[in-house]
Write a structure and sequence with these properties.
The protein has 734 residues and is α/β, with parallel strands linked by helices. It is built from 22 helices and 26 strands. Helix 5 links the parallel strand 2 (73-75) and strand 3. Helix 2 (20-34) packs across helix 15 and helix 18 packs across helix 22 (548-556). The N and C termini lie far apart (66 Å). The model is unreliable at 1-18 (pLDDT under 50). Beta-D-glucopyranose binds next to loops.
Length: 734
Amino acid sequence: MKFIITFTFFIAFHIGAFSQSFNSAHFIDSLLLQMTIEEKAGQLSLFTNDWNDSGDMIQDQYVELIKDGKVGGIFNAHGAAYTRKLQEMAVNESRLGIPLLFGFDVIHGHHTIFPVPLAESSSWDLEAIERSARIAALEASATGLHWVFAPMCDISRDPRWGRVMEGAGEDPFLASAIAAARVKGFQGEGFVQPDAVAACVKHFAAYGAPQAGREYHSVDMSELTLREFYLPPYKAAVDAGAFTVMSAFNDLNGIPATANSFLLQKILRDEWNFKGFVVSDFTSVLELLNHGTAENAAQATLTALSSGTEMDMQAFFYLQNIPHLVNKGFLEKSVLDAAVRKVLQLKYELGLFNDPFRFCSVEREQKMLMKDEFLEASRDMARKSMVLLKNDASLLPLSKRLRKVALIGPLADSRQDMLGGWYAAGDGKKAVSLLDGLKSKLPDCEITFTKGCDIVAQDEQDFDTAIKLASEAELVILALGEPAWMTGEATSRTSLDLPGMQQELADKILSLGKNVVVVLFNGRPLTINKLDQNASTILEAWYPGTMAGSALADVLFGEYNPSGKLPMTFPRSVGQIPVFYNTKNTGRPWDGATNTTSRYIDSPNEPLYCFGFGLSYTSFIYGDLSVDKNQIIDNELVTATIELTNTGKFAGEEIVQLYIRDLVSSVSPALKNLKGFQKIMLQPGETKLVQFKIGRNDLAFYNKDLKRIAEPGEFEIMIGTDSMKLKTVRIRLL
Ligand code: BGC
């Protein structure tokens, strides 16, 4: 601790005399002068706590390393008392007393769990998403954490890939807005606040496009596609001030992302001016050997570090190899120092050199976790995240006069599954299941319940009970989907059908002719054609988080009118994948008749539910679309206006979407790209004018020289309720 005290004095003494950046540079330079190469390698090493729910178990080997000053950060450790204990080891027992960074996968809440990110993204509600991240940061920082491994900014067009659950879907415009909102939420007003945590933008880059949707698989894509569709959300997060970036597991066009100087240097540093540090993904420095791009640990270390990955997560390679690489002259000391400087900079900005324990207050922790207002915010976010896919018989909203309801399905009374994957310190026992939620909403109604079948096994044993309960009830709610473990990392699937015997169960129940509402819990688009054909009513609930059942009851009984829209296309079959809305026209677009045009012989081209789709209990009518001028000169703006009327019986919100198509350009353009959206609340019978301003920047794209430009010519401006039902008008860029 000696060192810290000396430097705390140094800082205090100089306050007011020098700028913060001068202070930090001077402080860090002085610290670097005192560090051995081993200690520097230690600052670039991140190790995991043993993963358990309370986050308070660590192996002896790490304790020794901490005391030796050979650890930069620990992840998966949380809890104010426990992180204090580890921090004390680092600060009091290591030679220089450099504090540890504590990181964790706080992806959609920490103790209060919010809907999974794909669900939150269905709300298209940036304020609510920012608030969700802010609450996660309030809780995380109160349990000793400084750093969260989020937001995940990977665009994906492939629901076979299980991690689509963690992302914002397929569209770069929506995902960029969401990425920025999440960073703002995590980092708050800046690190001077004791409740701001550093964000980590991951997984850089293009991890969401693995070949055949198989986890960790190679990514091979043109630089045009990369820049136009995949990079924008990472950039938005960096522009929003994210302090760290995580390199991805995959190789991109043959070069593993962890040792990819095109990504980590040219794009991230040179073009985007990123000043923070890059951490590898879990053992991805070691995996350079498996990728076949490094022969041994020393080479992997050298190539990863000199390509721009400053911190090694869990491979031990940096710790073990940096010293001899420097001593033998293979690694320049200046490269090592530059990397260490960035890690120390974050610790400095977080105020850890002044007070290493500022995040470790047990008192604050006790007050801060799962507060009523956090639970309420989670419930609200869950309601906003749900997407009404079908309501043909207007069964929803349900009447509170119902007296006998059968709740059937393997997920109907699951609390743990409601949290989805990556639930941080969330406790499934504290979650509200659908059964819990219905019971408290309808205390006077008899709610019968059976699972009907196992969620994954081929087992019909409970079918008879399910049929009996369904036959005796006024209404059936069928809760189907994927178990939470089936989405997230390492959960790629080749079939996106409902697992187990759930479809067969649904067939049996639907054939009874009763009123049936299907509620889906899942972390990715599924192939649910049969359900869509046979069920009149389908509500996509995703994994709604701690308050799942309460939020669902609010929606089912009309206390909240669903407004969510899909951030990702639902395919009809796995064979259509990748299927996404911003596709190109091709030289032979399907014309509805000619065999030799771009189509399948056994399936329509169109998906089951398109990007942006989602219904409401009320109905909205779009009027004519007009523009105030039909030409843009220089930096002028065009205003597009459309009239929106609520023609139904319920107050409701509609997410009005703006798409633009470049009709002719030097690079074959997408048929449409989302360029704006607004969430509009309307009372029954109410009309509002919705306006979007469109400028040159909205018409720009990457040309063949990879320059972002807008070319003169004609553009279609499209506004509507989803990516397919749109009103159109043309403008010209001069
Ligand atoms: C995941 C990352 C995560 C890291 C640490 C990896 O397996 O890909 O997203 O942040 O583990 O838990």
